[in-house]
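Same chain as my last thread, 326 residues:
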Amino acid sequence: MPRSWERLSALSLALLPLTLVFLILSAVRRLIFRIGILNATKIHVPVIVVGNITVGGTGKTPIVVAIANALKDLGLAPGIITRGYRGDGTNREVVETSTPSEVGDEPILIFNKVKCPVWVGPNRSRSAQQIIKKYPNVNVIISDDGLQHYALKRDIEVVVIDGERKFGNSLLLPSGPLRESISRIQTCDLAVINGPQIHKLPIPTTNMKLIGSTFHKLSDPTITCDAEDLLKTEVTAIAGIGNPERFFQHLKSLGLRPKTIRFPDHHRYSVKDFNSIENDIIIMTEKDAVKCKSYAPKECWFLPVTAEFNGPFIQTIIEKLKNYHG
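reply #2:
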C-alpha cells in the first residue's frame, strides 16, 4: 500500500477532486444496475462472490480454495471464475498446460489446489455461463474477486479484509485504497478478517490465518523439508504478493530469519531476479512458484499454505446454500 494511502497526506488531499468523480461514477454504476437500466445476469446455480473493498491482496485466493474444497467434500461440484490478472485477457478455461502469461498466476494456483473447472476472463458473467455450458454438473459458482462486478447476480457475498492494513486512510481511489465505501460491508453476507481482529463489523465475522510448515522443492515438489532443515544455511525469501510482510512474518514464526526481497504483486519474474540473489537457497510463496518453476536457476523451495478459520465460516456458507436449494 502506498504511504499516501496509509493515512491522510498532502497527496491524498490533493487528489480529493478525482476521488469525488470516482465516487459519483461508482454510485451511478451501482444505481443503473439496481433500477434495471443495465441487466445483471442471473445464473441458474448459486453464486458465491469472495471479494474486497480495497485495492491489493487481502487473502481471497486461500478462502476460495477452502470453500471449493469443502463443497467438493460434501459431494457438490463447484466451478471457479476469476479475472486472470496479468494474463492475456482472453476468456478461457484453465487447463494443465495453461501458463501464467495466458491466464495469470492465481488461476493456475487455484486449479492445482482444487482440481475443479476454473475459467478466466474480464467478463465474469460470460465466464460463469461458459463454465456451466461445458460442465453441466457444476452446481455452484465461486467468483474469486468480483464484489464490484454487478453484471453478475450473486447469492452470497464474502468480503475479505486485511486485519493489518485495514482500510488505510479510509478514502476512495485515488486518494485512498478503497474501491467502495466502508458502508458497503454491511450489504455483504459474511466478513473474513485476515489477521488481527478489527473493530466490530455489522455482519457475521470470522478471523482467518494462513497455516503451513512444509516446504516443497521447486524443481520436484514431491521432495519436502521443514524449517529446521533450512536453518543449516543462509536463505533468501522472496514474495511477489499483495502483502509480502505477512509471508515473511510466517517464516519467522517457523524459526527462520531469512534475508527478504519484496516484489510487486503478480510480479513477472525473470532469471535476472534470481541472479542478483547471493544466497544458494531461495524460499518463496506457492503463488510465486507457479511463475518460477521453468527457469529459477538456484535451489528454490516454496511454502504451500491453507486458510484456517476460527469460527463456523464454512458451515455458514453451507447452510446458506442449503437454504438456496430449499
